[in-house]
Amino acid sequence: MNTLINAWNDYWFRPTRLLDLALFRIALVGTQLLVFFPRLRPEISLLSLPAALYVPLPALKVMLLPFGAWGMRPNATIIAVVWALGIIAGVLALLGVLARLSLAVFAWSNSLLLGHLYSYGPLHHPEAVMVIALWIMVLAPSGASMSIVRLRRRIRKAVATMHFVPHGRATDSVPHVSQFALWPLRLVQWLICLIYFSAGISKLHYGGIGWLRASTLRYVLIGDGLTRHATVGLFTASHPALLPALAALSLAFELTFILVMFHPVLTWIYIPLGVLIHFGIFAMQDIRFFQFFVAYVAFAETMRRTWPTVERLLRRLTKRSLARPRQQWTLIYDGFCPLCTRAMVIVDALDITDRLAYIDFERDWEDVVMRAPRLTMESARQAIHVVRPDGDVH
Q1: What are the φ/ψ torsions at residue 100 (nearest 5 degrees)?
Q2: Which end of the chain is more exposed for a tag (fewer CB within 10 A), N or C?
Q3: Using one digit for the tens of pLDDT, what is the confidence trace for 300-330?
Q4: Number of DSSP helices (H) and strands (E) in the chain, helices first
């Protein structure tokens, strides 16, 4: 039993970089805010439709309770207020300000506006993927890294003590990893897998083997090509010999994508393949599933972790190493200068690949002499210097 519990905890709660979770927060909130957030004018224009067309979803009824009776139809003022709150909360969540609260308000705003849109017609899973992921991030420590609040705290501490500590160091009081940083990424990964798997099962259930026939896909491509003016789809439909292979590829991708959860190294195959497939769907049918590209960022931690395995495999296949020696750039700064110290904290926060090293020449002049022997103390006090991996100093 203990073995199973330990395996379960390791799968969901293995200590993981907070940076991976923060990058997903930025990708998710940023693209939802700038690209996929419901537009105000189309949302309000729905109110001009006949009331008989309005069939509110149960979730929408719950979210509208603070504004009135159960099952009410929102007016233009409510829509505008929810939209404005969503914009403000999205900006704050993107910056990591009051991250949990701002993410909750942003997720609520997205849910209400999309629920209102869905109450007039069919449901679409790409929008739902983003909203579900937002609610998952509300429960996670999403603002613990890449946050304006954390950056300000680090700056104040570094300036007050006149001592800058790079992120991830053992002496850094701010945690670099967390046991709660992995589970939200895992949950989004499973969400994507189940969406693909259910799509594949639906094809087999409703279409059977007939879904793989050239005539089936040809009918779909011609219909979308004429209605959406997708010339690539019409061109593809004119080559029926290709269509069974395309249908089989799509079905196999959807049914087997779940393998990445059991063999993580396969993400290096399925994620690029998924990008190509969705771009192909867009080109041939003008159907946009670009929200999945954002959701794919949840696999970035898995791809980073499995890269050494991929690199070893490619080295065996090509008989050459793809990995280059990890080279660092060194920043030489004045640790007694508040401006320099503040600059180092900001630069370090942006160094997500850990390519920079830092030397406080006031405390470690011997290291400076080893890295940049021609640099004088007077020059070092006049400006921050950077030493390239080849030894050049700027």
Answers
A1: -65, -45
A2: N
A3: 999 999 988 888 888 888 776 655 666 789 9
A4: 18, 5
Question: Which helix or strand (DSSP H or E) is residue 76 part of?
Answer: helix 76-95
Q: Which residue has the higher pLDDT, 174 or 227?
A: 227
Question: By C-alpha distance, which of 329, 326, 335, 333 is closest to 392?
Answer: 329
> pTM value?
0.86
Neighbours of 337 (CB within 10 A): 17
How far, CA to CA in Å, does 340 sit from each of 228, 336, 337, 364, 384? Answer: 56, 8, 5, 16, 7
Strand partners, 351: none
**Cα–Cα distance measured from residue 191 to residue 188, given in angstroms and rounded to the nearest whole number:** 5
Q: What share of the chain is helix, strand, coil (3-state, %, to 5)?
A: 70, 5, 30
What are 210-244's pLDDT values in tens digits? Answer: 888 888 888 888 988 888 888 888 888 888 888 89
